[in-house]
Design goal:
Number of helices: 7
CATH architecture of the largest domain: 2-Layer Sandwich
Shape: elongated
Distance between the termini: 44 Å
Order of helices and strands: HEEHEHEEHEEHHHE
C-alpha cells in the first residue's frame, strides 16, 4: 500500500516541473542548444550545458570543439546562457601529433577589457623537433601575444576570436619567425566564475 502512494507522489512531483528551452549567448546567434527541467526557474540558473561548436554554427567540421555554457537568466520558458569555456576533443589533438615534431602548450591567464578572467591553453605544433631554448622562445611569444589580444578585447570579442580561429592565426604569424610551425590552436578556455554565482 505504501509503495503505491510513493509512486503517486513521484508522478505528482514530475508533473509539477516545467521544461525550459536553453539558448546559446547572443554573439553565437542565440542558437537553441537543448532543454532542462525544473520545478522553479531559480533552480535553472547556474546549470551548465555542453554542446559542440559544430551544432551551434551548423558546421560539421567543428564537431571536435566542445563548448560549455552556464545558464545566467530565465525568461518564461526560455533560459539564456553565458560562455564559460571550451575544449578540443582528445581524438582531434591526437590526430595533430606527428613523429619527430614538438608540441608546445602554453597556459595564459587573461583579464579582458570588461574585467572577465579567463585562462586560455594554446598549443603549437612544430614542423621539426625544437630544442629547449626554441621551445622557451615560442612559449614566451605565445604568452605575450595571447595576453595582448585578451587585454585589448572584451569577452565577446575574445570568444569570437576563439571560435573563428582569428587568435590562432595571429599567434601563428608571430611564432613562425622563431621556428617553423605547422599549426597553432587554442585548445581550451576556462572563464573564472565569481564566487557565490
Amino acid at each position: 500500500m505504501a509503495k503505491k502512494k510513493q509512486v503517486g507522489r513521484r508522478v505528482e512531483g514530475w508533473k509539477a516541473k516545467n521544461w525550459y528551452r536553453v539558448f546559446a549567448p547572443e554573439n553565437l546567434g542565440k542558437t537553441y542548444i537543448g532543454d532542462t527541467i525544473a520545478n522553479d526557474p531559480a533552480n535553472v540558473v547556474g546549470r551548465v550545458m555542453q554542446t559542440t561548436l559544430g551544432e551551434i554554427i551548423n558546421d560539421y567540421a567543428k564537431q571536435n570543439v566542445k563548448m560549455r555554457f552556464r545558464i545566467a537568466n530565465v525568461a518564461g520558458d526560455a533560459a539564456y546562457t553565458e560562455f564559460i569555456g571550451h575544449e578540443v576533443t582528445r581524438d582531434y589533438l591526437r590526430s595533430l601529433v606527428k613523429r619527430r615534431t614538438s608540441r608546445i602548450d602554453s597556459h595564459v591567464p587573461i583579464t579582458t577589457k570588461d574585467g572577465k578572467k579567463i585562462t586560455l591553453t594554446v598549443t603549437c605544433y612544430t614542423l621539426a623537433r625544437a630544442n629547449d631554448s626554441q621551445i622557451h622562445a615560442i612559449r614566451h611569444e605565445i604568452t605575450k601575444q595571447v595576453a595582448g589580444i585578451g587585454q585589448a578585447a572584451e569577452m565577446n570579442q575574445l570568444l569570437n576570436g576563439i571560435v573563428t580561429g582569428e587568435i590562432s592565426k595571429e599567434v601563428f604569424k608571430s611564432v613562425k619567425g622563431i621556428f617553423p610551425v605547422r599549426r597553432v590552436e587554442v585548445i581550451k578556455s576556462k572563464v573564472e566564475v565569481p564566487a557565490g554565482v
